[in-house]
C-alpha cells in the first residue's frame, strides 16, 4: 500500500524537480482554466488512492509555478535543496507531532541541534532561545510577543493575564521601509501599526541612525525598536551597530531585527559587515524557506532571553505539561510538524562553507544581473547591489509592462515594486541552483523584450 503511494509520488516528484530548470517559469494562466481541470465534486464514496493522486498531479500541473527553479527571480523566493526535500518527505512520512519532547523525542532533539547550528552560523548568542515557526511573519509576531511581555513585565504589568487596556505600552519605532509583515505583527499584538513611530530612511531604504536618535530624544518610557536586515527592494541592511549604540544606555529598550533573508549575510565572511551589530539585538526573525532553501514553510524566531520567549508563549494543561525541552514552548503553535528536520538536513548537506558559498554566490549572481542589464542604454539600476536584490527601471517603459512581458515569455520571472513613487522591476537571486548561465539567459531575454516594447 504505502510502497505504491511512495513510488507514485516519487515518480511525479522526480519528474517535476528535474524539469524545474527547463520548463517555462511561470507563464500567466487563467484561474478559471486551472479550476476547470480540478474535479470539484465532493464524492459520496471514497476513491482509490492511486486515482486521487494521479488526478491531482494531472489537474494542478497547469497552475504550478516553477518558483523553486533557477530562473525565478520574483519576491525573495528560495528553492529547495535536495537534502531538504528528502528530509521534508521523511517528516511527512514519520508524521511526528513536534509540540513536546514526549510526543517525539526525535523531533525535539533534532530541533535542538538545528537551532544550535543556526545560532552558530548567524553569529547569534549561543544561549538564545530559538523557535521554528512557519515564516518570518510568524517569527516577527513571536519575537515581538516576547518583547512586549518583557518590556511590560519590567513595569510590573502582566500582559498575558491583564491584556493591554491601561498598560504602559512601549513606544514602537520602525524604519519607514519596514516590511509589511512587521506592521502586521504590531497589529496582531495590539501594539498598533499607525501608532508606531516611522523613522526616516536613506536612499537605499536603511533606517537613518540620526533620525532614530532624534525620534528617541523625546521618548521617556520603554521603547521597542524594529530594525531590518535586508530590505526587500534593495537588500540594504539598517545600520545595526549604530542603532544598538543608541539604545545601549536605555534600561527599558528592546531591539528587534527583521532579518528574514538579510541576516544570512552573517554566514558569509565577505558580507558579514552588512549586518555588523546584529548580535547586539534582543530578538531576530529569520526565514529558512527563503535563502536557506528549505521547502515552505519554515522560519526561526530567536530571542536572547529564553525566559522572555517561553514566558510569552508557554501554555500548559493538566494533560499537556510543557517544559523547557518542549519545542512548542518557544512558538505560538501547539501541534506542529517537525519543521526543523529539513533545516538540519540542509545545513548538513551544505556545511558551514556551503552556507557561506550559497549566500556569496547569490550575491555575485545579483551583481552579474545588474551588470548585464545595466549595459543597456535605457536601463537604470536603482540600488547599490550589496546583497541579492537588484532594482531596475528602463527609460520609456512602465516597469509593470516590462515585468508582465517577462512573465508571459516564461524564460524567467521577475516582479515589481514601487520605489521612490514609481514602479520598478525587482530581481532577486535566492536559489541554490541558479547558475551564471541562468542569469545571462534571463537578462538577455529581458533586454530583448525591452527592445520589443
Ligand atoms: C519575506 C520577508 C518577511 C516575511 O516572511 P514570510 O516568510 O513571507 O512570512 C518579513 N520580513 C522581510 C524583510 C522579508 O523579506
UniProtKB/TrEMBL annotation:
This is Pyridoxal phosphate-dependent decarboxylase family protein. Belongs to the group II decarboxylase family. Keywords: Decarboxylase, Lyase, Pyridoxal phosphate. It holds the Pfam family Pyridoxal_deC. SUPFAM superfamilies: PLP-dependent transferases. InterPro entries: Aromatic_deC, PyrdxlP-dep_de-COase, PyrdxlP-dep_Trfase, PyrdxlP-dep_Trfase_major, PyrdxlP-dep_Trfase_small. Its cofactor is pyridoxal 5'-phosphate.
Amino acid at each position: 500500500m504505502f510502497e505504491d503511494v511512495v513510488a507514485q509520488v516519487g515518480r511525479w516528484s522526480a519528474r517535476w524537480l528535474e524539469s524545474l530548470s527547463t520548463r517555462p517559469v511561470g507563464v500567466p494562466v487563467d484561474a478559471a482554466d486551472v479550476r476547470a481541470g480540478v474535479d470539484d465534486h465532493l464524492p459520496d464514496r471514497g476513491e482509490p488512492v492511486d486515482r486521487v493522486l494521479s488526478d491531482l498531479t494531472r489537474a494542478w500541473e497547469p497552475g504550478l509555478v516553477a518558483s523553486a527553479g533557477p530562473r525565478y527571480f520574483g519576491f525573495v523566493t528560495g528553492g529547495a535543496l535536495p537534502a531538504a526535500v528528502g528530509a521534508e518527505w521523511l517528516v511527512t512520512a514519520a508524521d511526528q507531532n513536534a509540540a513536546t519532547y514526549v510526543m517525539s523525542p526525535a523531533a525535539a532533539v533534532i530541533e535542538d541541534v538545528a537551532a544550535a547550528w543556526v545560532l552558530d552560523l548567524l553569529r547569534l548568542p549561543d544561549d538564545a532561545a530559538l523557535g521554528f515557526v512557519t515564516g518570518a511573519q510568524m517569527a516577527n509576531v513571536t519575537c515581538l510577543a516576547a518583547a512586549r511581555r518583557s518590556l511590560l513585565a519590567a513595569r510590573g504589568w502582566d500582559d498575558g493575564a491583564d491584556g493591554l487596556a491601561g498598560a504602559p505600552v512601549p513606544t514602537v519605532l520602525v524604519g519607514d521601509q519596514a516590511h509589511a509583515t512587521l506592521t502586521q505583527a504590531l497589529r496582531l499584538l495590539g501594539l498598533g501599526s499607525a501608532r508606531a513611530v516611522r523613522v526616516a530612511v536613506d536612499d537605499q531604504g536603511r533606517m537613518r541612525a540620526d533620525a532614530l536618535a532624534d525620534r528617541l530624544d523625546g521618548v521617556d518610557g520603554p521603547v521597542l525598536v524594529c530594525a531590518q536586515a535586508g530590505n526587500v527592494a534593495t537588500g540594504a541592511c539598517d545600520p545595526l551597530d549604530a542603532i544598538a549604540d543608541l539604545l545601549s544606555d536605555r534600561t527599558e529598550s528592546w531591539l528587534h531585527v527583521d532579518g528574514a533573508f538579510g541576516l544570512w549575510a552573517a554566514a558569509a565572511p565577505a558580507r558579514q559587515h552588512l549586518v555588523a551589530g546584529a548580535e547586539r539585538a534582543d530578538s531576530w526573525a529569520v526565514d529558512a524557506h527563503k535563502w536557506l532553501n528549505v521547502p515552505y514553510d519554515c522560519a526561526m524566531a530567536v530571542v536572547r532571553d529564553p525566559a522572555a520567549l517561553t514566558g510569552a508563549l508557554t501554555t500548559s494543561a493538566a494533560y499537556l505539561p510543557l517544559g523547557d525541552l518542549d519545542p512548542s514552548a518557544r512558538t505560538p503553535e501547539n501541534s506542529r510538524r517537525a519543521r526543523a528536520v529539513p533545516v538540519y538536513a540542509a545545513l548538513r548537506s551544505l556545511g558551514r562553507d556551503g552556507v557561506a558559498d550559497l549566500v556569496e554566490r547569490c550575491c555575485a549572481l545579483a551583481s552579474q544581473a545588474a551588470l548585464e542589464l545595466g549595459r543597456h542604454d535605457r536601463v537604470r539600476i536603482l540600488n547599490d547591489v550589496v546583497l541579492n536584490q537588484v532594482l531596475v527601471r528602463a527609460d520609456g517603459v512602465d516597469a509593470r509592462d516590462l515585468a508582465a512581458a517577462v512573465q508571459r515569455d516564461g524564460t524567467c520571472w521577475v516582479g515589481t515594486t514601487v520605489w521612490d513613487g514609481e514602479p520598478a522591476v525587482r530581481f532577486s537571486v535566492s536559489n541554490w541552483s541558479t547558475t551564471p548561465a541562468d542569469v545571462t539567459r534571463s537578462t538577455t531575454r529581458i533586454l530583448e523584450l525591452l527592445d520589443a516594447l
